[in-house]
Amino acid sequence: MIRILIIIIIINFCSALNYSEDISPIIYNNCTSCHRVNEIGAFLPLTNYSEVNENKYWIAYAIEGTDDRHGDPVMPPWPPDRSFSTFIDERYLTDQQVHDFLDWIDLGAPQGDPVLEAEMPDFPDGSSIGEPDVVFELEEPYFIEGNGEDNYRCFVIPTGFSEDKEIAAIEFRPDNKEAVHHSIITVVPSGYANNIDNEDSEYGYECYGGFNLDILTPLVEGYAPGMRTSLYPEGIGDVIPANSDLIVQMHYAPLDTDQIDQSSINIFFKDEPIERYIQNQQYANPFFLLPPNVITEVRDSIEVTADVSLIQILPHSHLLGKSWEIYAVTPENDTTQIIKINNWDFDWQSFYTPEYMIPLPQGSMIYANAVYDNTADNPDNPNNPPQWTFWGDGTEDEMFFIAFRFVPYQDGDENIYLGDEEELGDVNQDGTIDVLDIVTIVQFVLNFSTPTDSQFELSDINQDEVLDVLDIVHLVGIILN
Ligand code: HEC
Fold first, then answer.
1. How far is residue 193's CA from residue 214's CA, in Å, rounded to a whole number?
2. N or C terminus of the chain with fewer C-beta within 10 Å?
3. What are the tens digits of pLDDT across the range 428-452?
4. Is residue 128 situated within a structural domain?
5. Nearest CA among 337, 346, 393 for reference residue 369
6. 166: CA distance to ligand 1 center in Å?
7. Ligand 1, CB cutoff 6 Å, lining residues
8. Are 299 and 391 contained in the same domain?
9. Are 180 and 250 in contact (CB under 8 A)?
10. What is the secondary structure of 394-421 as a DSSP string?
């Protein structure tokens, strides 16, 4: 093994930064899933040397954190502050990766030996879970005009279920991935949205910040590009009641050409009985006023009335929204940081799943603060000049809304990992955890090579957000076990 390491060291010292060896893995593993043909980032394909080289300054701008964004980069898109709390499937470049990219530009962006270029990862096209039990497709293809504008549309999908169905996962599958920016799904009693649906002569009906209904309905799933759905852990599940409709709200990104979308929703039934049902709690505070030309902070608190474990959260505001911070304080005065978003972006919202369930004992208070920028300096402000703004569903209205998903608390919940735990340690993804994985982590720890996001996650065995010798010790322990 020492010999292998020495060879690796020699190789690493001999080669200067170049695209093939150093930059292509950064781009292909963190950017290309979206930045290629037929995907949401198709306007800027990043699939080979010349595409990356031609756009290197644009990329450099996007991956560097800027002061006006509190140090957060524009790309890859990941709104939550990673120093505040940790979620599964986080997207980010490490500082080292950003430095390598900038240094590579300084060196004149050399290509290196094309033979050594990183392999393009597999971009799975189908379900991230497996074979669904039921697939609901939009009843007809929806025509999206290529007018360069956002388009928000709700579609009613009757389930036809005549009995309650126990659900292991609801997975949204975008059809036109260049067009679908994000979606949210709710469940309503059959026919509940028929009036509003029938008023609109085209398929579906217009809706922006929600489903345009007169009640708050449970948000059962959300989708944003690159987010994977996973099955609920053992014994945990959700129910779609008999005689209900699903409503999916689609946000179609601005397009230059006319296009068609016919997305679908995969339903996975639960194999084993559910012991703990997922509870969907929506919290809305409609009582705020946002005066023009002012930045306003809305602060609120919510009491937790039973022992629960939080499994997902989705904060939501519209275009004046600037930031969010949500944390809980237990009756013993312990603080749990839940989510912080420094640069709220309506385009990149979704349910966030913590790595481990977050226990919230009865009597805890959840504090939620949202900031709204209703000045002319906010480039997203829908009103020019700024206007008084209140709660509402429309683009020019605002919201203070949080969707929580939780289950009744059980001992040990804080140790239930909500990602794909069995992979932890299998850094080279060959299906076994062995000495080869140790060699790979050693290289990361010694800075001989740079882990991709997912390699970082899989190497961070003790889940403390740094790769160091402790992870190697942990992994050796797992292998010897
Ligand atoms: C999950 C999908 C996704 C991933 C991953 C992603 N992008 Fe993007 N990118 C987009 C979309 C969509 C836009 C258009 C702007 C927007 O919607 O935020 C964009 C915009 C950009 C822009 C233009 C930004 C501007 O403000 O002008 C650049 C440059 C860029 N991406 C580079 C990258 C790089 C480099 C990576 C990897 C480090 C990356 N992107 C990862 C989807 C993605």
1. 10
2. C
3. 766 678 888 898 899 999 988 888 7
4. no
5. 337
6. 37
7. 30-31, 33-35, 40-41, 44, 58-59, 62-63, 74-77, 91, 93, 225-226, 347
8. yes
9. yes
10. STTSB--EEEEEEEE--TTGGG-B-S-G
Could you identify the atom of ligand 1 that is nearest to the CA of residue 30?
Answer: 37
- Domain co-membership, 461 together with 479: yes
Distance, in Å, from the CA atom of 44 to the CA atom of 36, rounded to the nearest integer, reads: 7
- Compute the distance from residue 403 Cα to the ligand 1 centre, in Å: 26
pLDDT at 347: 86
pLDDT in tens, 287-321: 999 999 999 999 999 999 999 999 999 999 999 99
Name the domain boundary from 71, 103, 123: 123
Q: Which domain holds residue 180?
A: 134-277
Shared-domain flag, residues 273 and 143: yes
Nearest to 136 by CA among 95, 167, 105: 167
Rounded to 5 degrees, φ, ψ at 123 are: -105, 95
CA of 287 to the centre of ligand 1 (A): 35
Which of 30, 31, 38, 68 maximizes ligand 1 atoms within 8 Å of its Cβ, making it the mutation to test the pocket? 31
Residue 59 CA: nearest ligand 1 atom is: 29
Beta bridge partners of 299: 369
The residue among 285, 278, 277, 276 whose CA lies nearest residue 366 is 285
H/E stretch holding 303 reads strand 295-303
Ligand 1 atom at minimal distance to the Cα of residue 226: 1
- Mean pLDDT, rounded, for 39-57: 96
pLDDT in tens, 361-379: 999 999 999 999 999 999 9
Q: What is the distance in A from the centroid of ligand 1 to the CA of 242?
A: 41
- Quickly tell me which residue has 């074979």 as its tokens: 131
How far CA 396 is from CA of 89, 214, 289, 374, 379, in Å, comes to 32, 18, 13, 11, 14
Total number of domains in the chain: 4
Residue 70: inside a domain: yes
Phi, psi of 118 (to 5 degrees): -65, 150
Q: Which residue has the tokens 């008023």?
A: 199
Q: Tokens in use for 364?
A: 């805890």
The pTM (predicted TM-score) of the whole model is 0.85
Compute CA distances 284 → 216, 298, 314, 414, 468, whole Å: 9, 12, 12, 27, 43
CA dist., res. 372 & res. 320, Å (int): 5
CA-based R_g, the chain, Å: 23
Q: How far apart are CA 15 and CA 67, in angstroms?
A: 34
The answer to whether the beta carbons of residues 180 and 261 sit under 8 Å apart is yes
Same domain for 353 and 338: yes
